[in-house]
Amino acid sequence: MTAWSGTEHFLLRTLKGQGHEVSVLRNIQKRHRLVGKALRNLSNVLTGGDHYTVERTLVTANRIGNAVMAHLEKNRTDLLFSPSSIPVSMVVTDRPMVFYTDATFKGLLALYPELSNYNPDRIAEAEYLERSAIQNARQVIYTSDWAARSAVVDYGADPDKVHVVPFGSNLPARRGRTTILRNIRGRSRERCELLLVGVDWVRKGGDLALEVLQEIRKRGIEARLTVVGCTPPSGVQHADLEVHPFLNKQDRRDLASLLSLYERSHFLIVPSMAECFGIVYAEASSMGVPSLARDSGGVASAVVDGVNGRLFPYRATADQYVAHIAAHFSDPDLYEHAALAAFDHYDRQLSWDAVGHRIQDILQAATRNGHAMATTH
Protein backbone atom coordinates (compact mmCIF):
# COMPACT_ATOMS: atom_id res chain seq x y z
CA MET A 1 0.00 0.00 0.00
CA THR A 2 1.08 3.58 -0.58
CA ALA A 3 -1.84 5.44 1.00
CA TRP A 4 -0.23 5.39 4.43
CA SER A 5 3.36 4.53 3.53
CA GLY A 6 4.73 6.65 6.40
CA THR A 7 2.72 4.56 8.81
CA GLU A 8 4.03 1.38 7.21
CA HIS A 9 7.59 2.59 7.86
CA PHE A 10 6.93 3.14 11.55
CA LEU A 11 4.97 -0.10 11.84
CA LEU A 12 7.76 -2.11 10.24
CA ARG A 13 10.32 -0.48 12.52
CA THR A 14 8.13 -1.29 15.53
CA LEU A 15 7.77 -4.95 14.56
CA LYS A 16 11.50 -5.34 14.05
CA GLY A 17 12.16 -3.57 17.34
CA GLN A 18 10.11 -6.22 19.12
CA GLY A 19 12.45 -8.92 17.91
CA HIS A 20 10.44 -10.22 14.97
CA GLU A 21 12.29 -11.47 11.93
CA VAL A 22 10.37 -9.71 9.17
CA SER A 23 10.37 -10.54 5.46
CA VAL A 24 8.78 -7.72 3.45
CA LEU A 25 6.85 -8.34 0.24
CA ARG A 26 7.52 -4.86 -1.08
CA ASN A 27 5.03 -2.98 -3.24
CA ILE A 28 3.09 -6.16 -3.89
CA GLN A 29 -0.17 -4.29 -4.47
CA LYS A 30 1.51 -1.58 -6.53
CA ARG A 31 2.92 -4.09 -9.01
CA HIS A 32 -0.37 -5.83 -9.61
CA ARG A 33 -2.37 -2.61 -9.74
CA LEU A 34 -0.67 -1.78 -13.06
CA VAL A 35 -2.66 -4.47 -14.85
CA GLY A 36 -5.80 -3.45 -13.00
CA LYS A 37 -5.25 0.19 -13.90
CA ALA A 38 -5.34 -0.68 -17.58
CA LEU A 39 -8.62 -2.50 -17.01
CA ARG A 40 -10.05 0.48 -15.15
CA ASN A 41 -9.04 2.86 -17.93
CA LEU A 42 -10.86 0.65 -20.41
CA SER A 43 -13.89 0.57 -18.10
CA ASN A 44 -13.87 4.36 -17.87
CA VAL A 45 -14.05 4.60 -21.63
CA LEU A 46 -16.95 2.14 -21.82
CA THR A 47 -18.97 3.35 -18.81
CA GLY A 48 -18.28 7.06 -18.70
CA GLY A 49 -16.04 7.03 -15.63
CA ASP A 50 -17.77 5.01 -12.90
CA HIS A 51 -15.46 4.94 -9.89
CA TYR A 52 -13.79 1.83 -8.54
CA THR A 53 -10.39 0.89 -7.11
CA VAL A 54 -8.58 -1.77 -9.08
CA GLU A 55 -7.17 -3.60 -6.07
CA ARG A 56 -10.75 -4.38 -4.98
CA THR A 57 -11.40 -6.60 -8.00
CA LEU A 58 -11.13 -10.38 -8.18
CA VAL A 59 -8.57 -10.18 -11.00
CA THR A 60 -6.15 -8.01 -9.02
CA ALA A 61 -6.82 -9.68 -5.65
CA ASN A 62 -6.11 -13.09 -7.18
CA ARG A 63 -2.85 -11.84 -8.66
CA ILE A 64 -1.82 -10.45 -5.29
CA GLY A 65 -2.93 -13.61 -3.51
CA ASN A 66 -0.92 -15.83 -5.85
CA ALA A 67 2.19 -13.71 -5.29
CA VAL A 68 1.73 -13.94 -1.52
CA MET A 69 1.25 -17.71 -1.62
CA ALA A 70 4.33 -18.12 -3.82
CA HIS A 71 6.35 -16.22 -1.23
CA LEU A 72 4.97 -18.34 1.61
CA GLU A 73 5.92 -21.55 -0.20
CA LYS A 74 9.55 -20.46 -0.52
CA ASN A 75 10.06 -18.88 2.89
CA ARG A 76 9.83 -19.98 6.50
CA THR A 77 7.04 -17.82 7.82
CA ASP A 78 5.04 -18.18 11.02
CA LEU A 79 2.56 -15.40 10.29
CA LEU A 80 1.44 -13.12 7.46
CA PHE A 81 0.83 -9.52 8.51
CA SER A 82 -0.78 -7.07 6.10
CA PRO A 83 -1.50 -3.31 6.33
CA SER A 84 -4.60 -3.91 4.20
CA SER A 85 -7.33 -6.50 3.91
CA ILE A 86 -6.83 -7.04 0.16
CA PRO A 87 -3.58 -9.09 0.19
CA VAL A 88 -5.10 -11.75 2.47
CA SER A 89 -8.51 -11.91 0.81
CA MET A 90 -7.60 -14.65 -1.69
CA VAL A 91 -4.74 -16.37 0.13
CA VAL A 92 -5.13 -20.05 0.99
CA THR A 93 -2.59 -21.13 3.62
CA ASP A 94 -2.31 -22.84 6.96
CA ARG A 95 -0.20 -19.94 8.25
CA PRO A 96 -2.13 -17.48 10.46
CA MET A 97 -2.87 -14.10 8.90
CA VAL A 98 -3.47 -10.71 10.53
CA PHE A 99 -4.36 -7.43 8.86
CA TYR A 100 -4.34 -3.88 10.24
CA THR A 101 -6.33 -1.17 8.49
CA ASP A 102 -8.51 1.88 9.03
CA ALA A 103 -11.82 1.00 7.36
CA THR A 104 -14.03 -1.67 5.86
CA PHE A 105 -15.22 -1.35 2.28
CA LYS A 106 -18.82 -0.76 3.36
CA GLY A 107 -17.62 1.88 5.81
CA LEU A 108 -15.78 3.70 3.02
CA LEU A 109 -18.83 3.65 0.76
CA ALA A 110 -21.00 5.15 3.49
CA LEU A 111 -18.46 7.79 4.57
CA TYR A 112 -17.08 9.27 1.35
CA PRO A 113 -19.56 11.01 -0.99
CA GLU A 114 -17.18 10.69 -3.94
CA LEU A 115 -17.69 6.92 -3.80
CA SER A 116 -21.40 7.26 -4.50
CA ASN A 117 -20.68 6.50 -8.16
CA TYR A 118 -18.74 3.33 -7.35
CA ASN A 119 -19.22 0.94 -10.24
CA PRO A 120 -22.24 -1.18 -9.24
CA ASP A 121 -20.82 -4.25 -10.96
CA ARG A 122 -17.68 -3.98 -8.81
CA ILE A 123 -19.39 -3.51 -5.46
CA ALA A 124 -20.28 -7.20 -5.20
CA GLU A 125 -16.64 -8.14 -5.91
CA ALA A 126 -15.33 -5.68 -3.33
CA GLU A 127 -17.82 -6.90 -0.73
CA TYR A 128 -16.83 -10.50 -1.41
CA LEU A 129 -13.14 -9.70 -1.00
CA GLU A 130 -13.72 -7.80 2.25
CA ARG A 131 -15.76 -10.62 3.76
CA SER A 132 -13.23 -13.21 2.58
CA ALA A 133 -10.32 -11.28 4.14
CA ILE A 134 -12.10 -11.02 7.48
CA GLN A 135 -12.91 -14.74 7.44
CA ASN A 136 -9.38 -15.73 6.39
CA ALA A 137 -7.58 -13.67 9.02
CA ARG A 138 -6.85 -15.15 12.43
CA GLN A 139 -7.03 -11.67 13.98
CA VAL A 140 -8.11 -8.36 12.48
CA ILE A 141 -7.05 -4.93 13.72
CA TYR A 142 -8.77 -1.64 12.97
CA THR A 143 -7.77 1.86 13.96
CA SER A 144 -11.19 2.83 15.28
CA ASP A 145 -14.32 1.58 16.97
CA TRP A 146 -16.20 2.81 13.89
CA ALA A 147 -14.34 0.43 11.56
CA ALA A 148 -14.38 -2.47 14.03
CA ARG A 149 -18.13 -2.11 14.47
CA SER A 150 -18.60 -2.28 10.70
CA ALA A 151 -16.57 -5.50 10.53
CA VAL A 152 -18.85 -7.13 13.08
CA VAL A 153 -22.19 -5.68 11.99
CA ASP A 154 -21.71 -5.51 8.21
CA TYR A 155 -19.49 -8.56 7.65
CA GLY A 156 -20.28 -10.88 10.54
CA ALA A 157 -16.78 -10.85 12.01
CA ASP A 158 -16.29 -12.73 15.26
CA PRO A 159 -16.04 -9.94 17.88
CA ASP A 160 -13.40 -11.95 19.75
CA LYS A 161 -10.92 -11.59 16.88
CA VAL A 162 -11.61 -7.92 16.15
CA HIS A 163 -9.32 -5.40 17.85
CA VAL A 164 -9.00 -1.62 17.91
CA VAL A 165 -5.49 -0.16 17.87
CA PRO A 166 -5.06 3.47 16.71
CA PHE A 167 -2.24 4.48 14.41
CA GLY A 168 0.73 6.18 16.03
CA SER A 169 2.23 9.56 15.21
CA ASN A 170 4.37 9.69 12.08
CA LEU A 171 6.55 12.55 13.29
CA PRO A 172 10.04 11.07 13.65
CA ALA A 173 11.23 13.19 16.57
CA ARG A 174 9.94 11.96 19.93
CA ARG A 175 10.00 14.60 22.67
CA GLY A 176 9.95 14.20 26.43
CA ARG A 177 7.34 15.75 28.69
CA THR A 178 9.74 18.44 29.93
CA THR A 179 10.41 19.64 26.38
CA ILE A 180 6.70 19.58 25.57
CA LEU A 181 5.88 21.62 28.67
CA ARG A 182 8.51 24.19 27.73
CA ASN A 183 7.04 24.46 24.22
CA ILE A 184 3.52 24.85 25.60
CA ARG A 185 4.56 27.66 27.93
CA GLY A 186 6.46 29.34 25.09
CA ARG A 187 3.38 29.75 22.92
CA SER A 188 2.12 33.26 22.31
CA ARG A 189 -0.26 34.87 24.80
CA GLU A 190 -1.10 37.64 22.32
CA ARG A 191 -2.08 35.66 19.23
CA CYS A 192 -3.95 32.36 19.04
CA GLU A 193 -2.27 30.07 16.53
CA LEU A 194 -4.49 27.59 14.69
CA LEU A 195 -3.06 24.87 12.45
CA LEU A 196 -4.78 22.86 9.71
CA VAL A 197 -2.82 20.00 8.14
CA GLY A 198 -4.35 18.14 5.19
CA VAL A 199 -4.26 17.69 1.44
CA ASP A 200 -7.93 18.42 0.68
CA TRP A 201 -9.22 21.84 1.75
CA VAL A 202 -12.87 20.92 1.31
CA ARG A 203 -12.88 17.47 2.91
CA LYS A 204 -10.65 18.57 5.79
CA GLY A 205 -13.11 21.32 6.72
CA GLY A 206 -11.05 24.27 5.56
CA ASP A 207 -14.09 26.51 5.12
CA LEU A 208 -15.18 25.91 8.71
CA ALA A 209 -11.64 26.48 10.01
CA LEU A 210 -11.51 29.81 8.17
CA GLU A 211 -14.90 30.78 9.57
CA VAL A 212 -13.59 29.99 13.06
CA LEU A 213 -10.63 32.30 12.42
CA GLN A 214 -12.96 35.10 11.35
CA GLU A 215 -15.25 34.67 14.36
CA ILE A 216 -12.33 34.63 16.80
CA ARG A 217 -11.12 37.94 15.43
CA LYS A 218 -14.61 39.39 15.77
CA ARG A 219 -14.30 38.66 19.48
CA GLY A 220 -11.20 40.82 19.61
CA ILE A 221 -8.72 37.94 19.83
CA GLU A 222 -5.70 38.11 17.56
CA ALA A 223 -5.43 34.85 15.65
CA ARG A 224 -3.77 33.21 12.67
CA LEU A 225 -4.73 30.09 10.72
CA THR A 226 -1.80 28.23 9.18
CA VAL A 227 -2.59 25.69 6.47
CA VAL A 228 -0.15 22.91 5.56
CA GLY A 229 -0.58 20.46 2.71
CA CYS A 230 -3.03 22.19 0.40
CA THR A 231 -3.91 25.50 -1.20
CA PRO A 232 -7.33 27.03 -0.47
CA PRO A 233 -9.60 27.45 -3.51
CA SER A 234 -9.32 30.56 -5.63
CA GLY A 235 -10.89 33.53 -3.91
CA VAL A 236 -10.39 32.17 -0.38
CA GLN A 237 -8.21 34.80 1.25
CA HIS A 238 -7.61 36.35 4.65
CA ALA A 239 -4.87 38.59 5.99
CA ASP A 240 -4.24 36.10 8.81
CA LEU A 241 -4.21 32.98 6.64
CA GLU A 242 -0.73 31.51 6.12
CA VAL A 243 -0.38 28.73 3.56
CA HIS A 244 2.34 26.10 3.10
CA PRO A 245 1.10 24.04 0.12
CA PHE A 246 3.50 21.17 0.74
CA LEU A 247 6.04 20.18 3.37
CA ASN A 248 7.92 16.92 2.83
CA LYS A 249 8.71 15.06 6.05
CA GLN A 250 11.56 13.32 4.26
CA ASP A 251 13.26 16.67 3.64
CA ARG A 252 15.21 17.89 6.67
CA ARG A 253 14.30 21.54 6.22
CA ASP A 254 10.64 20.87 5.51
CA LEU A 255 10.40 18.61 8.55
CA ALA A 256 11.98 21.29 10.74
CA SER A 257 9.45 23.81 9.41
CA LEU A 258 6.54 21.47 10.15
CA LEU A 259 7.75 20.77 13.68
CA SER A 260 8.18 24.51 14.27
CA LEU A 261 4.59 25.12 13.15
CA TYR A 262 3.34 22.49 15.58
CA GLU A 263 5.43 23.95 18.39
CA ARG A 264 3.94 27.43 18.01
CA SER A 265 0.33 26.27 17.51
CA HIS A 266 -2.26 26.35 20.27
CA PHE A 267 -4.73 24.08 18.48
CA LEU A 268 -4.85 21.75 15.52
CA ILE A 269 -8.18 22.42 13.80
CA VAL A 270 -9.08 19.76 11.24
CA PRO A 271 -12.89 19.42 11.22
CA SER A 272 -12.91 16.77 8.49
CA MET A 273 -16.19 16.01 6.80
CA ALA A 274 -15.03 12.42 6.19
CA GLU A 275 -12.12 10.69 7.94
CA CYS A 276 -11.32 7.05 8.67
CA PHE A 277 -8.92 7.95 11.49
CA GLY A 278 -6.62 10.93 11.03
CA ILE A 279 -2.93 10.41 11.81
CA VAL A 280 -2.56 14.19 11.99
CA TYR A 281 -4.43 14.14 15.33
CA ALA A 282 -1.88 11.70 16.73
CA GLU A 283 0.93 13.94 15.47
CA ALA A 284 -0.59 16.99 17.13
CA SER A 285 -0.91 15.11 20.42
CA SER A 286 2.75 14.10 20.21
CA MET A 287 3.61 17.83 20.15
CA GLY A 288 1.31 18.76 23.02
CA VAL A 289 -1.23 20.40 20.71
CA PRO A 290 -4.93 19.73 21.47
CA SER A 291 -7.07 18.85 18.45
CA LEU A 292 -10.39 20.34 17.41
CA ALA A 293 -12.20 17.81 15.26
CA ARG A 294 -15.56 16.87 13.81
CA ASP A 295 -17.17 13.58 14.87
CA SER A 296 -16.96 11.78 11.54
CA GLY A 297 -16.06 8.20 10.69
CA GLY A 298 -13.27 6.92 12.93
CA VAL A 299 -12.13 10.30 14.29
CA ALA A 300 -13.55 9.55 17.75
CA SER A 301 -10.78 6.97 18.23
CA ALA A 302 -8.11 9.54 17.32
CA VAL A 303 -9.52 12.49 19.26
CA VAL A 304 -10.96 11.40 22.57
CA ASP A 305 -13.25 14.21 23.66
CA GLY A 306 -11.89 16.01 26.69
CA VAL A 307 -8.65 14.02 26.66
CA ASN A 308 -6.47 15.06 23.71
CA GLY A 309 -8.83 17.65 22.33
CA ARG A 310 -12.45 18.46 21.64
CA LEU A 311 -14.64 16.29 19.43
CA PHE A 312 -17.49 18.42 18.16
CA PRO A 313 -20.83 17.15 16.84
CA TYR A 314 -20.83 16.81 13.07
CA ARG A 315 -22.97 19.91 12.54
CA ALA A 316 -21.41 22.07 15.25
CA THR A 317 -21.16 25.75 14.30
CA ALA A 318 -18.08 27.93 14.16
CA ASP A 319 -19.33 29.67 17.32
CA GLN A 320 -19.09 26.39 19.23
CA TYR A 321 -15.47 25.96 18.18
CA VAL A 322 -14.72 29.59 19.00
CA ALA A 323 -16.24 29.33 22.49
CA HIS A 324 -13.94 26.43 23.32
CA ILE A 325 -10.87 28.15 21.88
CA ALA A 326 -11.58 31.47 23.62
CA ALA A 327 -12.12 29.83 27.01
CA HIS A 328 -8.76 28.06 26.83
CA PHE A 329 -6.76 30.85 25.23
CA SER A 330 -7.87 33.32 27.92
CA ASP A 331 -6.90 30.92 30.74
CA PRO A 332 -3.23 29.85 30.55
CA ASP A 333 -3.62 27.25 33.30
CA LEU A 334 -6.63 25.66 31.61
CA TYR A 335 -4.81 25.61 28.28
CA GLU A 336 -1.64 24.13 29.76
CA HIS A 337 -3.65 21.35 31.39
CA ALA A 338 -5.37 20.55 28.07
CA ALA A 339 -2.13 20.61 26.07
CA LEU A 340 -0.30 18.36 28.54
CA ALA A 341 -3.26 15.99 28.59
CA ALA A 342 -2.95 15.69 24.81
CA PHE A 343 0.71 14.74 25.10
CA ASP A 344 0.03 12.28 27.92
CA HIS A 345 -2.63 10.59 25.81
CA TYR A 346 -0.13 10.31 22.97
CA ASP A 347 2.39 8.76 25.33
CA ARG A 348 -0.11 6.17 26.57
CA GLN A 349 -2.05 5.42 23.40
CA LEU A 350 -0.75 7.09 20.23
CA SER A 351 3.01 6.53 20.27
CA TRP A 352 4.37 3.67 18.20
CA ASP A 353 5.79 2.15 21.38
CA ALA A 354 2.28 1.96 22.84
CA VAL A 355 0.81 0.75 19.54
CA GLY A 356 3.54 -1.86 19.20
CA HIS A 357 2.86 -3.40 22.60
CA ARG A 358 -0.82 -3.82 21.75
CA ILE A 359 -0.08 -5.32 18.35
CA GLN A 360 2.45 -7.66 19.92
CA ASP A 361 -0.24 -9.11 22.17
CA ILE A 362 -2.52 -9.65 19.18
CA LEU A 363 0.20 -11.35 17.14
CA GLN A 364 0.97 -13.64 20.05
CA ALA A 365 -2.69 -14.56 20.16
CA ALA A 366 -2.52 -15.41 16.44
CA THR A 367 0.52 -17.68 16.69
CA ARG A 368 2.71 -19.20 19.34
CA ASN A 369 5.14 -20.88 16.98
CA GLY A 370 7.90 -18.34 16.52
CA HIS A 371 8.90 -14.84 15.52
CA ALA A 372 9.34 -14.98 11.75
CA MET A 373 6.68 -13.18 9.76
CA ALA A 374 5.99 -11.86 6.29
CA THR A 375 4.39 -8.47 5.85
CA THR A 376 2.86 -7.15 2.64
CA HIS A 377 3.70 -3.67 1.42
Provide an overview of this structure:
With 377 residues, this protein is an alpha/beta fold. It folds into two domains: 5-168 and 352-376, Rossmann fold (3-Layer(aba) Sandwich); 177-350, Glycogen Phosphorylase B (Rossmann fold), CATH 3.40.50.2000. Helix content is 47%, strand content 15%. The strands form two sheets. A six-stranded parallel sheet has the order 1-12-2-3-4-5, with helices on both faces. Strands 8-7-6-9-10-11 form a six-stranded parallel sheet, sandwiched between helices. It is globular, with a radius of gyration of 22 Å. The N and C termini lie close together (5 Å). The model is unreliable at 32-49 (pLDDT under 50).
Strand content: 5-15%
Could you spell the SSE succession in H and E letters? Answer: HEHHEHEHHEHEHEHEEHEHEEHHHE
The overall average pLDDT, rounded, is 90
Shape: globular
CATH topology of the largest domain, which one? Answer: Rossmann fold
Quick gist of this model?
The protein has 377 residues and is of the alpha/beta class.
Identify the notable features of this structure and list them briefly:
6-stranded parallel sheet, 377 residues, alpha/beta, 14 helices
Present the secondary structure layout.
Blueprint: H1 5-17, E1 21-25, H2 28-47, H3 58-74, E2 79-82, H4 86-89, E3 97-101, H5 105-111, H6 120-136, E4 139-142, H7 145-155, E5 162-164, H8 177-185, E6 191-197, H9 206-218, E7 222-228, E8 241-244, H10 252-264, E9 267-270, H11 279-286, E10 291-294, E11 309-312, H12 318-329, H13 332-350, H14 352-366, E12 372-376
Helix pairs in contact: 1-14, 2-3, 8-13, 9-12, 11-13, 13-14
